[in-house]
Amino acid sequence: MNPLKEKGIPLEKQLRSWQETVKRPYNKFDADNYTRTRQILMNGIEIEAWNFKHAFVRCHPNLEVRKQVNIIRRLEGMQQMTAAWLAPADQTVLDTTLGYEQVAVDLTAWLAQNEPDDYVKETYDFGLLEDFDHLYRYAQWAYMAEGSDPNDILQDMTDVLIARPTQYHHNCNAMRIRRHYDKTTANPQTKMNILTLVSAEQQTHNFYADHGFMYGNEDLRRLYAEICDVEEEHVSMYESLIDPSETPFEKLLIHEFTEVCNYYNCYKDESDLRLRLIWEEFLAYEIEHLRIAAELLKVHENRDPEEIIGDKIFEPSHFESQKEYVTNILENETGKRIISDGGYGDVENLPDDWRGYAVQEASNRDGAPSEQAVRLIRASIGHDIVSADEKLIRKEPELLERSLEKKYQAPNTVTVDEYKEMVNINIKGDKK
Ligand SMILES: [Fe+2]
Ligand SMILES: [Fe+2]
Ligand SMILES: [Fe+2]
Ligand SMILES: [Fe+2]
């Protein structure tokens, strides 16, 4: 379908009562894990839609345009509340956190396989291993603080295992800047894929920044701080792929197009009928937002919207188990590091003045909370919390070895030998 040719719901009919805005949440115990990931993602997409329009209006001199964008922005805010508050009150912060990292892993893996630009794909594969490691670190705490099994949330769709250790995700933010696409030649799918992932990562950052205080344990609070800062790096990395010379109207159009594609994908995939109807209704809202954004572009820039977003819809957020894809990246890329000028290097060949070292040394000098999570669980039950094929679990020490930086390690780094012991206990435990 060409979303520019579809008919949406007029703006005046998008204004809903509070009762229509605040819907009954899904049930934490019954919900499909991918119903949760869609709900988490759409909250992030709406936050970005709302936030971008604030930045737009603050910078735009034309009063009529500002009025128009203000009206739509309020509706985005109401959609955001609906999506965000489908989550139930008894879903703990750590439960939700595992959901956020499951979004990051499975969404990034899907986007990487549906990305026409090879360089953008490489960046997704790189970021993927970092969120995969976050999932592992948080899973230790979900067990220690709340006694929960990660599969209560993940439902065996996503593995839990060490990847590129979080202590190595801290880099100079200037170095995180990647090479951006060229807006005149980029595929519309690339533009929309990137904005989808930027929205998800930004919301992950915001959630950690805003909820890390909700636990009393200092080590857990510090883990939220550490990973929140990595999500800041992820937002920086993914947003830098966007051509900065896009005009505000062009960006507005891409934002609405991204909302259309994601709601379409949610509507198509959703197994919970009640939520499916919400996604369908919001898709019709977004088609109207897109029509208005296209009109603004035509009137103010005399440009054809199809030049920017093409004439067809994409499916950026199809969720399914990505274990096989992730395992392949895990076995080959834990030693990968970002280097200057948008390049990628290997841990074996980093120059002595590599800019990541100074940041890691400054932030981890009193110990990395991400290492502490494993130290504590090892002291408590003798092994880490993992969920993967036994063959893969046996590779934990080797995966760590390939990823360790020779020049800098946090003082509390869990060693390869300690991993060997944990793996032995884990495997024996499985056979009981
Ligand atoms: Fe929206
Ligand atoms: Fe993450
Ligand atoms: Fe992330
Ligand atoms: Fe919208």
Summing up helix and strand content along with how strands pair, one would put the structural category as mainly alpha
Q: Biggest sheet, open or closed, and with what strands and sense?
A: 2 strands, antiparallel
What is the share of helical residues?
Answer: 55-70%
Number of strands: 2
Assembly level:
single chain
Can you tell me the residue ranges where pLDDT is under 50 for at least 5 consecutive residues? none
Q: Into which percentage range does the β-strand content fall?
A: under 5%
Mean pLDDT: 97
Order of helices and strands: HHHHHHHHHHHHEEHHHHH
**Ligands bound, unique:** fe (ii) ion
* Estimated radius of gyration: 22 Å
Tally of DSSP helical segments: 17
Strand order, sheet with most strands: 1-2
Features:
2 domains, binds fe (ii) ion, 432 residues, mainly alpha, 1% strand
Question: What does this entry look like structurally?
Answer:
The chain has helices at residues 18-21, 33-59, 63-84, 93-113, 118-146, 151-154, 188-211, 218-239, 248-269, 273-301, 306-309, 323-333, 355-364, 369-381, 390-393, 396-403, 416-431, and strands at residues 336-338, 344-346. With 432 residues, it is an all-alpha fold. Helix 2 packs across helix 4 (93-113). The relative contact order is 0.15. The N and C termini lie far apart (54 Å). It is globular, with a radius of gyration of 22 Å. The chain folds into two domains: 3-159 and 177-311, no CATH class; 326-431, no CATH class. The structure holds fe (ii) ion (4 copies). One fe (ii) ion (FE2) binds at residues 49, 76, 256, 259, 286, 289.
